[in-house]
Amino acid sequence: MDVIDTLAKKLKTDATIELKTDEYEYFLWTRILFAHKKATFQETKHCLDLHNSDIKEENYITTVFEKRWVSEGKKVFLLQYRKK
Question: What is the mean pLDDT of residues 54-69?
Fold first, then answer.
């Protein structure tokens, strides 16, 4: 059982998972993992540069790490999924 299977067991229907990272490879890897779970999770949002996007105002919670990444000029990648 992997992390996504555990999330599927623990989360209620329509629960949302949001992941933000400054690592493009991690963003892609996570997206591939969730793609293998299409029956359980639906991608509802993805963004390749959150802080320079139309959805930046929807970024309600900014983490300490995210603030650091932005101050270093790094892009913040966003993935959001809904449990079916």
Answer: 88
